[in-house]
């Protein structure tokens, strides 16, 4: 058995011999019915089964020959009756004792929905144009895990299966099909496959007990991230530049141009050359000092000329 395996049947069932009783060691009540999984509505063939339905307080048992459409977990052993645990049932309206009750009922064969492990592959297309696989499945039935094996037939009468490869041994698959009249010699039931899904479960455990190769570990959760965990993208260059603009869109301090109060544009200060920055400062200082010294001298010369 493998984790994640399941076996569910959808079928139209005729019920009889209903009885209400407690289920096992629990105090929950169930209704139990005798029924048959009939392939293609064939009343002369099929798989005998017992259907268990949850029974709330004060519920009544359905009369004999009632027909229901049921979804149920299923266990079909090679020998003995099948066990069905109903997920939901829908009784058909009408009086089961009426002779015309069956006349208006649809013919719906039992469909099996199963997910499990491939245990055998048999390609006999050269003999009867069919392919066969054995699928091992399990589900929780009658308050415990129960597993069984059934055969799925991929008939060559359907052209779509001619080019579809069969799943490999020990691989997992999901198969949906219709219950057939035929059985294997050991009593294993056969279904005619209608759908096949590869790799529907984790890889099966190998014979030496080793599981599937470890998957890539998740990325380490960092204390500080470059981006928000919500997945928002970083600010684009255009958005970054626009964020430096003022409310009216004009450049803030540090822009390329400055504006005088009179409206004249004044070029911004150019970066200074590191090699000449010291000499330029010295030249400015000397020039300023010469102007400061020369100013009183010129003023005194003017006063002497006025006296003369």
From TrEMBL:
Residue stretches of biased makeup (Polar residues): 276-286
The organism's taxonomic lineage, starting at the top: Eukaryota, Fungi, Dikarya, Basidiomycota, Agaricomycotina
Residue ranges with Low complexity bias: 229-254
Name of the protein in question: Uncharacterized protein
Superkingdom field: Eukaryota
Record field: compositional bias (Basic and acidic residues): 255-272
Segments for region (Disordered): 204-308
